[in-house]
Amino acid sequence: MKKLSNFAAVILLLTLSAVMLLGSCTANDSGKLKVVTSTSLMEYIVKQVGDNLIEVTNLVPPNQHPGNFDIKPGDIQNLAKANLFLLHGWPGEGYADKLVASANNPALMVVKAVVDGNWMIPSVQAAAVDRVTAVLSENDSKNAAAYQKAAEVYKKKIQSVETEVKTRLAAANAAGIKVIASARQADFLQWAGFNVIGSFQSPQALTPQAVQDFIDKGRVAEVTLIINNLQDGKDAGQAIAQDLGAQNLNLSNFPGGFDDTETWEKAILYNIDILIQALGK
Questions:
Q1: Does residue 69 surpass a pLDDT of 50?
Q2: Residues 172, 176, 180: CA angle, nearest 5 degrees
């Protein structure tokens, strides 16, 4: 009987420990869904859709490229307490597997909310809202209706911003302006009506020969703007711009990349301000 009692006590202890572990990973005092996001783009959509029903923590600072992210102890702790980890599925998120393993949270749902295109583009932002809303609804079905309602409100705001941006770009005669740009800004610039006659993948790709090739191409095409991606490092194309007598600009792909651009709306309007000012409008 003594052996049986000891065995039963061990089983009970292990069961209670497992329940406590799962409880610590899936619940919190507020009862809110705890979400960790990989970028400020994802974080902002979660905040718009989830509002006060969700607690969200973001990993990669908005002025940093995701591919350069280094895991910190606090990131592991946040993921150990989370219900949901939302990623883009980008190659630069290679750190995620190691982070998830270190968090050791068996209750954690890891979802890649893949949406093709530059999320600063209004139509892509709206598609991302739909994808994130679906994920939140699947993981917190009792609040699905609230998430759907908030998503529709935010998508109307996106449409309003797109109308404003297109009107301003048309007034500035931006259509067809020839530029050389970071590949990570090329889609956004083409959506805005600019003519991207060449793009570079990263500052490291701008070898002396590559710079000269862009200068030659830019001179023939009469390029007037060189546009960099802030998260890759400022002024990557400065040497090209100087030789061509073109303006060298930096745009951000993430809310919060520049001061006072913590929302998607502010971030896209800030980018548009930079472009229109460069056109002298």
A1: yes
A2: 105
CB-neighbour burial class of residue 202 (10 A; exposed 0-12, middle 13-18, buried 19+): middle
> 33 has which bridge partners?
54
Report the interhelical angle of 40-50 vs 144-171 (nearest 10°).
Answer: 120
Q: Where are the alpha helices (DSSP H) in 192-258?
A: 208-221, 238-244
In angstroms, rounded to a whole number, what is the distance separating the alpha carbons of residues 95 and 88? 13
pTM as predicted: 0.87
- Token readout for 183 is 């590949």
Cα–Cα distance measured from residue 107 to residue 160, given in angstroms and rounded to the nearest whole number: 39
- 21/132: higher pLDDT: 132
Q: Please say whether the beta carbons of 146 and 190 come within 8 A.
A: no
Distance in angstroms (rounded) separating the CA atoms of residues 163 and 123: 12
Give whole-number Cα distances, 26 to 23, 34, 79, 177, in Å: 5, 8, 11, 51
Domains and CATH numbers, the chain: 14-161 (3.40.50.1980), 172-278 (3.40.50.1980)
Q: Which pair of structure tokens corresponds to residue 243?
A: 């030789």
Question: Would you say residue 175 has pLDDT above 50?
Answer: yes
First to last CA, the chain: 89
Overall size of the chain counted in residues: 281
Joined together, the tokens standing for residue 9 give 């006590």
**d(Cα 68, Cα 92) in Å, to the nearest integer?**
8
How many Å apart are CA 3 and CA 11, to the nearest integer? Answer: 12
